[in-house]
Structures are given as C-alpha cells and as structure tokens.
Give the backbone structure.
Amino acid sequence: MMELFPRKQVIGFGFSLLLTAIALAVYFFDLSFTAGMTILLVTAFVQAAVQLVVFMHAGETGDKGSIYTNIYYSLAIALVTVFGTLLCMIWGYV
Amino acid sequence: MKIDHSLPLEYGTDQNQLNILGFWIFLGAEIMLFGTLFASYFTLVDRTGSGPSGAEIFEITPVLIETIVLLTSSFVIGLGVHAMRIGRTKAMITFYAITLLLGLTFLGVEIYEFMHYVHIGAGLQVSAFTAILLTTLGTHGAHVTFGLVWGFFIILQVRKHGITPETANKSFIFSLYWHFLDVVWIFIFSFVYLKGMM
C-alpha cells in the first residue's frame, strides 16, 4: 500500500495546501494592497512551479529543454499580454 | 515498435515522446489563452456599472471547497500516474476514478456558484465586470467538463487494454491536462477571488 504513495508527491501535496493557507492570509488579515498582492504573486507562482515539477514530471526526460523552452515562451507571451494590457488600459490613465 | 525500457512506459517509443512534447506545446497555447482572459479581467474588473462588485458577490466557502477539491484531485491523479509506472492497473484506475469524482464535485459547486450569481443579480449581461468574470470562470469550467469526458474514456481504455505503451501515453497526457487545470485555478483563486475579497 505504501508504495502507492511516493514521498515526493505527498510532500508536494502538503506544500501546496500550505501555500493555499498562506494565500488565505490576505482574506483573514487586514493587509495593505501591496503586501497582499506580493503574498498572492509569490504563493501563486510557487504553487504553479510545484505542480509543474512534482506532478507534471517536467524535466525527467531527454526533451526537458524543449518542454521548458516552450513553457517559458508561452509564459512570457502571457505576462506581456497581461502587463501590456494593464499598462495601456489602466496604469496609463492614472 | 521499438520500446526503450530505460524510460517510463508512457515515454517508451519515439511516437510517445512526440505526443507528450506536442501536448506541452498545446498547453503553452492554453497558457496564452488564459493570459488574454486575465488581461481582460484586470481591465474590466472595476467597470461594474450599476451591477455588484466582486467584493459584494464573492463568498469564501464555495471558493475554498473548489480549491481544496481541485488541489486534491491533482494530487490523486499524480498518484494514478505513479501507480501506472509501477504497473498497478487496479490502483491506477481507482485513482483516476477518484480524480474524476473530485472533478465532478468541483463542477457541481461551480454550477451552484453560477446559479447563485444569476440569482443575486450578477448574470452575464449585467456589467463588463460580471461578463468577464463569468467568461473567465466559465472557460475554466468548460475545460474541466471536457476533462471529465476525456478522463472517462481513458479509464475505459485502460480497463479494456491494460497498461500498454499507448494507454500509458494517453493516461499520462490526460494527467498533464488535469494538472494544468489546477494551475489555472490557482491563478483564478488568487487573482480573481482573493484579490477581490482583499
């Protein structure tokens, strides 16, 4: 039975629950916008990295380079889309 | 068919490796798709018109249930892939079935949430904010719905053929999709709900 629950994945799951609990701090405590957003940005991106490495097995095989290049590329496009939009639609008018 | 036994079964053949890389490229396109949805959401989040704002309609309980359920399902399908790699067909099917049940629970809560929004006057046509909110959540929910159908047929194939290079490859690719849905949800949970309730 134990061999069905690999240590690495159980720890990864515990860690992702912990990150969720930390993110909840912005709901239960009265934090400033900057402090809250910092917590959310850190927990969300760490959480995504945990999923990627522990559960999606990125980087276990020979095509590791192609997989990571592809993820970084699409992530860069997504971030440019989000922050570029914020820049010209919101921040530019403040 | 040449099978490389030094690799997990789902990577064993050249075709399998290409399938997995191809699916990663598809996930890259999905990241960009959700990137545009988030960009639109952040632009329209304050355009509430005469409708309610996020802080007025979001409730922590259903959101927390959805988050825990989806995180757990992502963990359980990870166990399913592990069981598959050590050749435990029964355990693998059980884990995949639990994953789908959790996915169904998530969907149930989300449908309840949507009905609740419409009920309290935050339907799709009320304001730019409710439109982009329900579009973003709905796109994720549609992905989960599609995943449930896909996963069901994966289980049927594994039951019929056992763990072969083909079924292992399909099951692994499905697990990638499912983990990806969880990653997207993490961002919705953080930057739609928690930011809205902050």
In short: Chain A touches chain B through 52 residues (CB under 8 Å). Chain A has two domains: 1-56, 61-94. Residues 61-94 of chain A form one domain. Chain A has four helices and no strands.
